[in-house]
Amino acid sequence: MLNEPTHRFLRACHSLPVEQTPIWLMRQAGRYLPEYMRVRQQAGDFLALCKNPDLATEVTLQPVYRFDMDAAILFSDILVVPEAMGMSLSFGSGEGPVLEPVLRNAADLQRLTPVQPEEQLGYVLQTVTQIRQALAGRVPLIGFSGSPWTLATYMVEGGSSKTFRYIKGMLFDQPALLQQLLDQISDVVADYLNAQIAHGVQAVQIFDTWGGVLGPREFVAFSLRSIRRIVDRLQRTGADGQPVPVILFAKGCGALLEEMVATGCDVIGLDWTTDLASARRHVAQRAALQGNLDPAVLYASPQIIRQQVRRLLQDYGAHPGHIFNLGHGMAQDMDPQRVVDLVTAVREESRLLLQQQALQKG
Ligand code: 1CP
User: Fold this and answer.
1) Cys-Cys with 269: which of 151, 194, 290, 308 at CB 3.0–4.6 Å?
2) What is the pTM of this model?
3) Residue 81 and residue 142: Cα distance in Å, rounded?
4) How far is the CA of 244 from the centre of ligand 1 (A)?
5) 40 included as an active-site residue
Protein backbone atom coordinates (compact mmCIF):
# COMPACT_ATOMS: atom_id res chain seq x y z
CA MET A 1 0.00 0.00 0.00
CA LEU A 2 1.24 3.44 -0.89
CA ASN A 3 1.72 5.62 2.18
CA GLU A 4 1.36 2.70 4.55
CA PRO A 5 0.22 3.98 7.97
CA THR A 6 2.40 3.36 11.03
CA HIS A 7 -0.14 3.57 13.88
CA ARG A 8 -1.53 0.19 14.77
CA PHE A 9 -5.12 1.45 14.80
CA LEU A 10 -4.89 2.70 11.20
CA ARG A 11 -2.93 -0.38 10.15
CA ALA A 12 -5.68 -2.64 11.50
CA CYS A 13 -8.36 -0.56 9.72
CA HIS A 14 -6.57 -1.38 6.45
CA SER A 15 -6.06 -5.03 7.46
CA LEU A 16 -2.28 -4.60 7.67
CA PRO A 17 -0.31 -6.72 10.19
CA VAL A 18 0.23 -5.37 13.74
CA GLU A 19 2.23 -6.64 16.72
CA GLN A 20 -0.69 -6.21 19.14
CA THR A 21 -4.41 -5.66 18.66
CA PRO A 22 -5.31 -1.95 18.84
CA ILE A 23 -8.04 -0.90 21.26
CA TRP A 24 -10.29 2.09 21.80
CA LEU A 25 -13.76 2.19 23.33
CA MET A 26 -16.97 3.79 22.13
CA ARG A 27 -17.89 6.56 24.60
CA GLN A 28 -14.41 6.32 26.10
CA ALA A 29 -14.83 9.93 27.25
CA GLY A 30 -17.81 10.57 29.48
CA ARG A 31 -19.56 10.43 32.76
CA TYR A 32 -17.80 7.36 34.21
CA LEU A 33 -14.61 9.47 34.43
CA PRO A 34 -14.42 11.87 37.40
CA GLU A 35 -12.10 14.16 35.40
CA TYR A 36 -14.82 14.40 32.71
CA MET A 37 -17.42 15.41 35.30
CA ARG A 38 -15.14 18.18 36.53
CA VAL A 39 -14.66 19.62 33.03
CA ARG A 40 -18.36 19.29 32.19
CA GLN A 41 -19.18 21.26 35.32
CA GLN A 42 -16.66 23.90 34.32
CA ALA A 43 -18.37 24.16 30.90
CA GLY A 44 -21.85 24.43 32.49
CA ASP A 45 -23.55 21.61 30.64
CA PHE A 46 -22.94 18.93 28.03
CA LEU A 47 -23.77 21.04 24.97
CA ALA A 48 -21.65 23.94 26.19
CA LEU A 49 -18.81 21.45 26.58
CA CYS A 50 -19.23 20.30 22.96
CA LYS A 51 -19.11 23.93 21.82
CA ASN A 52 -15.98 24.86 23.75
CA PRO A 53 -12.97 23.67 21.68
CA ASP A 54 -10.49 23.97 24.58
CA LEU A 55 -12.60 21.89 26.95
CA ALA A 56 -13.78 19.45 24.25
CA THR A 57 -10.12 18.86 23.41
CA GLU A 58 -9.34 18.25 27.06
CA VAL A 59 -12.05 15.59 27.51
CA THR A 60 -11.10 13.93 24.21
CA LEU A 61 -7.57 13.43 25.56
CA GLN A 62 -8.55 12.26 29.05
CA PRO A 63 -9.13 8.56 28.21
CA VAL A 64 -6.24 8.54 25.73
CA TYR A 65 -3.79 9.47 28.47
CA ARG A 66 -5.45 7.63 31.35
CA PHE A 67 -5.71 4.29 29.52
CA ASP A 68 -3.14 4.67 26.74
CA MET A 69 -5.80 4.04 24.07
CA ASP A 70 -4.73 3.42 20.47
CA ALA A 71 -7.08 6.07 19.09
CA ALA A 72 -8.78 9.26 20.20
CA ILE A 73 -12.39 9.99 19.22
CA LEU A 74 -13.54 13.56 18.75
CA PHE A 75 -15.65 14.67 21.70
CA SER A 76 -18.95 15.88 20.32
CA ASP A 77 -22.39 14.42 19.69
CA ILE A 78 -24.28 13.15 16.65
CA LEU A 79 -27.13 15.57 17.43
CA VAL A 80 -25.17 18.72 16.63
CA VAL A 81 -26.05 18.00 12.98
CA PRO A 82 -29.84 18.40 13.37
CA GLU A 83 -29.11 21.54 15.37
CA ALA A 84 -26.97 22.87 12.51
CA MET A 85 -29.91 22.11 10.19
CA GLY A 86 -32.05 24.52 12.18
CA MET A 87 -33.64 22.45 14.96
CA SER A 88 -33.33 23.46 18.57
CA LEU A 89 -31.40 20.95 20.71
CA SER A 90 -31.31 20.59 24.46
CA PHE A 91 -30.30 17.90 26.93
CA GLY A 92 -32.52 17.93 30.00
CA SER A 93 -30.62 17.01 33.16
CA GLY A 94 -30.54 13.23 33.43
CA GLU A 95 -33.00 12.67 30.58
CA GLY A 96 -32.40 12.17 26.90
CA PRO A 97 -32.03 14.83 24.22
CA VAL A 98 -34.90 17.04 23.01
CA LEU A 99 -35.10 18.27 19.39
CA GLU A 100 -37.76 20.82 18.43
CA PRO A 101 -39.94 21.39 16.52
CA VAL A 102 -40.32 17.81 15.26
CA LEU A 103 -40.53 16.94 11.54
CA ARG A 104 -43.70 15.15 10.51
CA ASN A 105 -44.70 16.38 7.03
CA ALA A 106 -43.41 18.03 3.83
CA ALA A 107 -43.94 21.55 5.20
CA ASP A 108 -41.83 20.71 8.27
CA LEU A 109 -38.95 19.62 6.02
CA GLN A 110 -39.04 23.02 4.32
CA ARG A 111 -37.90 24.58 7.57
CA LEU A 112 -34.54 22.78 7.50
CA THR A 113 -31.69 25.08 6.54
CA PRO A 114 -28.65 24.35 4.32
CA VAL A 115 -25.46 23.70 6.25
CA GLN A 116 -21.99 25.10 5.66
CA PRO A 117 -19.93 23.00 8.10
CA GLU A 118 -17.39 25.83 8.50
CA GLU A 119 -20.18 28.06 9.75
CA GLN A 120 -22.75 26.19 11.81
CA LEU A 121 -20.29 23.46 12.86
CA GLY A 122 -17.14 25.57 12.93
CA TYR A 123 -16.66 24.86 16.63
CA VAL A 124 -16.36 21.12 15.91
CA LEU A 125 -13.78 21.74 13.17
CA GLN A 126 -11.85 24.05 15.49
CA THR A 127 -11.88 21.25 18.09
CA VAL A 128 -10.51 18.80 15.48
CA THR A 129 -7.63 21.18 14.72
CA GLN A 130 -6.83 21.62 18.41
CA ILE A 131 -7.00 17.89 19.20
CA ARG A 132 -4.58 17.11 16.37
CA GLN A 133 -2.19 19.74 17.70
CA ALA A 134 -2.47 18.44 21.26
CA LEU A 135 -2.06 14.79 20.23
CA ALA A 136 1.08 15.62 18.24
CA GLY A 137 0.94 12.30 16.41
CA ARG A 138 0.65 10.15 19.55
CA VAL A 139 -2.42 8.28 18.25
CA PRO A 140 -4.83 8.84 15.33
CA LEU A 141 -8.00 10.91 15.73
CA ILE A 142 -11.38 9.44 14.74
CA GLY A 143 -14.10 11.80 13.54
CA PHE A 144 -17.75 10.73 13.36
CA SER A 145 -21.32 11.38 12.44
CA GLY A 146 -24.65 9.70 13.03
CA SER A 147 -26.11 7.88 10.03
CA PRO A 148 -28.95 9.68 8.25
CA TRP A 149 -31.47 7.10 9.49
CA THR A 150 -30.32 7.38 13.11
CA LEU A 151 -30.33 11.19 12.93
CA ALA A 152 -33.78 11.15 11.30
CA THR A 153 -35.18 9.07 14.19
CA TYR A 154 -34.29 11.87 16.61
CA MET A 155 -35.54 14.60 14.24
CA VAL A 156 -38.91 12.97 13.63
CA GLU A 157 -39.50 11.58 17.14
CA GLY A 158 -38.18 14.74 18.83
CA GLY A 159 -35.73 12.74 20.95
CA SER A 160 -35.01 9.17 22.01
CA SER A 161 -37.73 6.64 21.35
CA LYS A 162 -38.67 3.12 22.35
CA THR A 163 -41.30 2.47 19.70
CA PHE A 164 -40.17 4.68 16.79
CA ARG A 165 -43.83 5.34 16.14
CA TYR A 166 -43.55 8.52 14.08
CA ILE A 167 -40.48 7.72 12.02
CA LYS A 168 -41.82 4.25 11.19
CA GLY A 169 -45.19 5.78 10.44
CA MET A 170 -43.43 8.05 7.95
CA LEU A 171 -41.44 5.13 6.53
CA PHE A 172 -44.55 3.08 5.75
CA ASP A 173 -47.06 5.86 4.97
CA GLN A 174 -44.82 8.43 3.25
CA PRO A 175 -41.67 6.60 2.07
CA ALA A 176 -40.83 9.25 -0.54
CA LEU A 177 -40.93 11.99 2.09
CA LEU A 178 -38.62 9.99 4.36
CA GLN A 179 -36.21 9.37 1.47
CA GLN A 180 -36.19 13.09 0.77
CA LEU A 181 -35.31 13.80 4.39
CA LEU A 182 -32.61 11.10 4.37
CA ASP A 183 -31.08 12.50 1.17
CA GLN A 184 -31.00 15.96 2.68
CA ILE A 185 -29.31 14.67 5.84
CA SER A 186 -26.88 12.53 3.76
CA ASP A 187 -25.61 15.55 1.87
CA VAL A 188 -25.04 17.46 5.12
CA VAL A 189 -23.28 14.48 6.71
CA ALA A 190 -21.02 13.98 3.67
CA ASP A 191 -19.99 17.66 3.70
CA TYR A 192 -19.53 17.55 7.47
CA LEU A 193 -17.34 14.43 7.43
CA ASN A 194 -15.30 15.83 4.53
CA ALA A 195 -14.77 19.02 6.55
CA GLN A 196 -13.64 16.92 9.54
CA ILE A 197 -11.20 15.09 7.23
CA ALA A 198 -9.92 18.38 5.81
CA HIS A 199 -9.29 19.58 9.38
CA GLY A 200 -7.32 16.47 10.24
CA VAL A 201 -9.39 13.48 11.42
CA GLN A 202 -7.60 10.30 10.30
CA ALA A 203 -10.58 7.91 10.27
CA VAL A 204 -14.35 8.42 10.38
CA GLN A 205 -17.03 6.35 12.05
CA ILE A 206 -20.68 6.40 11.05
CA PHE A 207 -22.93 5.49 13.97
CA ASP A 208 -26.14 3.76 12.92
CA THR A 209 -27.31 3.17 16.46
CA TRP A 210 -30.92 2.56 15.41
CA GLY A 211 -30.37 0.56 12.21
CA GLY A 212 -31.35 -2.55 14.13
CA VAL A 213 -34.92 -1.42 14.75
CA LEU A 214 -35.62 -1.83 11.02
CA GLY A 215 -36.50 -5.01 9.18
CA PRO A 216 -33.79 -6.20 6.78
CA ARG A 217 -35.42 -4.75 3.64
CA GLU A 218 -36.06 -1.41 5.26
CA PHE A 219 -32.53 -1.33 6.71
CA VAL A 220 -31.09 -1.71 3.22
CA ALA A 221 -33.54 0.64 1.49
CA PHE A 222 -33.59 3.42 4.06
CA SER A 223 -30.42 3.24 6.15
CA LEU A 224 -27.71 1.60 4.04
CA ARG A 225 -28.81 3.38 0.90
CA SER A 226 -28.09 6.76 2.47
CA ILE A 227 -24.87 5.54 4.09
CA ARG A 228 -23.65 4.40 0.69
CA ARG A 229 -24.50 7.81 -0.72
CA ILE A 230 -22.24 9.34 1.93
CA VAL A 231 -19.37 6.86 1.53
CA ASP A 232 -19.41 7.51 -2.24
CA ARG A 233 -18.94 11.22 -1.59
CA LEU A 234 -16.22 11.02 1.04
CA GLN A 235 -12.77 12.39 0.42
CA ARG A 236 -10.84 9.27 1.41
CA THR A 237 -7.40 10.86 1.45
CA GLY A 238 -6.53 12.94 4.49
CA ALA A 239 -4.78 16.29 4.75
CA ASP A 240 -1.50 14.33 5.23
CA GLY A 241 -1.98 12.25 2.05
CA GLN A 242 -2.86 9.10 4.01
CA PRO A 243 -5.98 7.06 3.24
CA VAL A 244 -8.87 7.74 5.66
CA PRO A 245 -10.70 4.54 6.62
CA VAL A 246 -14.47 4.54 7.07
CA ILE A 247 -15.94 2.55 9.97
CA LEU A 248 -19.61 1.62 9.91
CA PHE A 249 -21.18 0.70 13.25
CA ALA A 250 -24.77 -0.40 12.80
CA LYS A 251 -26.14 -1.75 16.06
CA GLY A 252 -28.27 -4.87 15.81
CA CYS A 253 -27.47 -5.45 12.14
CA GLY A 254 -24.94 -8.29 12.31
CA ALA A 255 -27.14 -10.47 10.09
CA LEU A 256 -26.56 -8.09 7.16
CA LEU A 257 -22.76 -8.03 6.94
CA GLU A 258 -22.74 -8.53 3.20
CA GLU A 259 -24.98 -5.53 2.67
CA MET A 260 -22.81 -3.44 4.98
CA VAL A 261 -19.63 -4.34 3.08
CA ALA A 262 -21.41 -3.20 -0.10
CA THR A 263 -21.54 0.39 1.21
CA GLY A 264 -17.79 0.63 0.54
CA CYS A 265 -16.76 1.01 4.19
CA ASP A 266 -13.36 -0.33 5.29
CA VAL A 267 -14.29 -1.48 8.78
CA ILE A 268 -17.50 -2.91 10.20
CA GLY A 269 -18.22 -2.30 13.87
CA LEU A 270 -20.08 -5.17 15.50
CA ASP A 271 -22.26 -5.25 18.58
CA TRP A 272 -21.85 -8.20 20.97
CA THR A 273 -24.74 -10.25 19.54
CA THR A 274 -22.69 -11.25 16.48
CA ASP A 275 -20.20 -14.12 16.57
CA LEU A 276 -16.81 -12.60 15.74
CA ALA A 277 -15.37 -15.82 14.28
CA SER A 278 -18.16 -16.31 11.78
CA ALA A 279 -18.29 -12.60 10.93
CA ARG A 280 -14.58 -12.74 10.11
CA ARG A 281 -15.00 -15.77 7.88
CA HIS A 282 -17.79 -13.93 6.14
CA VAL A 283 -16.04 -10.65 5.37
CA ALA A 284 -12.36 -11.74 5.36
CA GLN A 285 -10.25 -9.85 2.82
CA ARG A 286 -13.04 -7.34 2.23
CA ALA A 287 -13.41 -5.46 5.51
CA ALA A 288 -11.73 -5.23 8.89
CA LEU A 289 -13.83 -5.77 12.03
CA GLN A 290 -14.17 -3.66 15.16
CA GLY A 291 -15.60 -4.95 18.42
CA ASN A 292 -17.31 -6.66 20.00
CA LEU A 293 -17.08 -7.30 23.73
CA ASP A 294 -20.37 -7.10 25.61
CA PRO A 295 -19.95 -3.83 27.58
CA ALA A 296 -21.45 -5.61 30.61
CA VAL A 297 -18.28 -7.71 30.88
CA LEU A 298 -16.80 -4.57 32.46
CA TYR A 299 -19.04 -5.18 35.49
CA ALA A 300 -17.28 -8.52 36.04
CA SER A 301 -14.00 -9.31 37.84
CA PRO A 302 -10.57 -8.71 36.25
CA GLN A 303 -10.16 -12.50 35.86
CA ILE A 304 -13.39 -12.81 33.90
CA ILE A 305 -12.55 -9.75 31.80
CA ARG A 306 -9.26 -11.40 30.80
CA GLN A 307 -10.98 -14.69 30.04
CA GLN A 308 -13.54 -12.95 27.81
CA VAL A 309 -10.82 -10.95 26.07
CA ARG A 310 -8.83 -14.11 25.35
CA ARG A 311 -11.90 -15.83 23.94
CA LEU A 312 -12.72 -12.91 21.66
CA LEU A 313 -9.13 -12.62 20.40
CA GLN A 314 -9.08 -16.36 19.70
CA ASP A 315 -12.41 -16.09 17.89
CA TYR A 316 -10.91 -13.53 15.54
CA GLY A 317 -7.66 -15.49 15.33
CA ALA A 318 -4.20 -14.26 14.36
CA HIS A 319 -5.40 -12.52 11.21
CA PRO A 320 -4.87 -8.87 10.40
CA GLY A 321 -7.82 -6.47 10.55
CA HIS A 322 -9.16 -6.55 14.12
CA ILE A 323 -9.70 -3.47 16.24
CA PHE A 324 -10.73 -4.31 19.79
CA ASN A 325 -13.74 -2.37 21.09
CA LEU A 326 -16.95 -2.84 23.03
CA GLY A 327 -20.12 -3.85 21.23
CA HIS A 328 -21.59 -0.49 22.29
CA GLY A 329 -20.58 2.44 24.48
CA MET A 330 -19.24 2.71 28.02
CA ALA A 331 -21.98 3.21 30.62
CA GLN A 332 -22.05 5.93 33.22
CA ASP A 333 -21.76 3.54 36.19
CA MET A 334 -18.66 1.68 35.00
CA ASP A 335 -15.43 1.55 36.99
CA PRO A 336 -12.43 3.12 35.22
CA GLN A 337 -10.19 0.50 36.88
CA ARG A 338 -11.96 -2.22 34.87
CA VAL A 339 -10.96 -0.34 31.70
CA VAL A 340 -7.33 -0.56 32.84
CA ASP A 341 -7.82 -4.32 33.31
CA LEU A 342 -9.37 -4.58 29.85
CA VAL A 343 -6.67 -2.64 28.02
CA THR A 344 -3.91 -4.58 29.80
CA ALA A 345 -5.54 -7.90 28.95
CA VAL A 346 -5.99 -6.97 25.28
CA ARG A 347 -2.32 -5.91 25.01
CA GLU A 348 -0.88 -8.97 26.74
CA GLU A 349 -3.18 -11.59 25.29
CA SER A 350 -3.01 -10.30 21.72
CA ARG A 351 0.80 -10.09 21.77
CA LEU A 352 0.92 -13.68 22.96
CA LEU A 353 -1.53 -14.87 20.33
CA LEU A 354 0.20 -13.05 17.48
CA GLN A 355 3.66 -14.24 18.61
CA GLN A 356 2.51 -17.85 18.86
CA GLN A 357 1.13 -17.61 15.37
CA ALA A 358 4.39 -16.11 14.03
CA LEU A 359 6.37 -18.95 15.69
CA GLN A 360 4.14 -21.59 14.14
CA LYS A 361 4.53 -19.99 10.72
CA GLY A 362 8.30 -19.46 11.15
O1 1CP B 1 -24.48 14.33 30.37
C2 1CP B 1 -23.53 14.16 29.59
O3 1CP B 1 -22.34 14.42 29.89
C4 1CP B 1 -23.90 13.69 28.23
C5 1CP B 1 -23.70 12.26 27.96
C6 1CP B 1 -23.23 12.18 26.51
C7 1CP B 1 -21.91 12.01 26.07
C8 1CP B 1 -20.66 11.83 26.92
C9 1CP B 1 -24.05 12.34 25.36
C10 1CP B 1 -25.50 12.65 25.34
N11 1CP B 1 -23.23 12.27 24.25
C12 1CP B 1 -21.92 12.07 24.65
C13 1CP B 1 -20.74 12.01 23.80
C14 1CP B 1 -20.79 11.24 22.56
N15 1CP B 1 -21.92 10.89 21.87
C16 1CP B 1 -19.67 10.82 21.83
C17 1CP B 1 -18.26 11.22 22.26
C18 1CP B 1 -17.08 10.50 21.94
C19 1CP B 1 -16.77 9.23 22.72
O20 1CP B 1 -17.18 8.16 22.25
O21 1CP B 1 -16.04 9.31 23.71
C22 1CP B 1 -20.16 10.13 20.71
C23 1CP B 1 -19.35 9.44 19.63
C24 1CP B 1 -21.57 10.20 20.75
C25 1CP B 1 -22.46 9.67 19.71
C26 1CP B 1 -23.91 9.52 19.99
N27 1CP B 1 -24.77 10.40 20.58
C28 1CP B 1 -24.68 8.42 19.55
C29 1CP B 1 -24.14 7.27 18.73
C30 1CP B 1 -23.37 6.33 19.58
C31 1CP B 1 -24.18 5.51 20.56
O32 1CP B 1 -23.94 5.66 21.74
O33 1CP B 1 -25.00 4.72 20.08
C34 1CP B 1 -26.01 8.64 19.93
C35 1CP B 1 -27.20 7.74 19.69
C36 1CP B 1 -26.06 9.90 20.60
C37 1CP B 1 -27.26 10.59 21.11
C38 1CP B 1 -27.18 10.94 22.54
N39 1CP B 1 -26.20 11.75 23.08
C40 1CP B 1 -26.36 11.84 24.42
C41 1CP B 1 -27.54 11.11 24.78
C42 1CP B 1 -28.08 10.97 26.16
C43 1CP B 1 -28.03 10.56 23.60
C44 1CP B 1 -29.30 9.74 23.44
C45 1CP B 1 -29.05 8.28 23.46
C46 1CP B 1 -30.37 7.53 23.30
O47 1CP B 1 -31.24 7.94 22.52
O48 1CP B 1 -30.50 6.48 23.96
Assistant:
1) 290
2) 0.97
3) 17
4) 23
5) yes
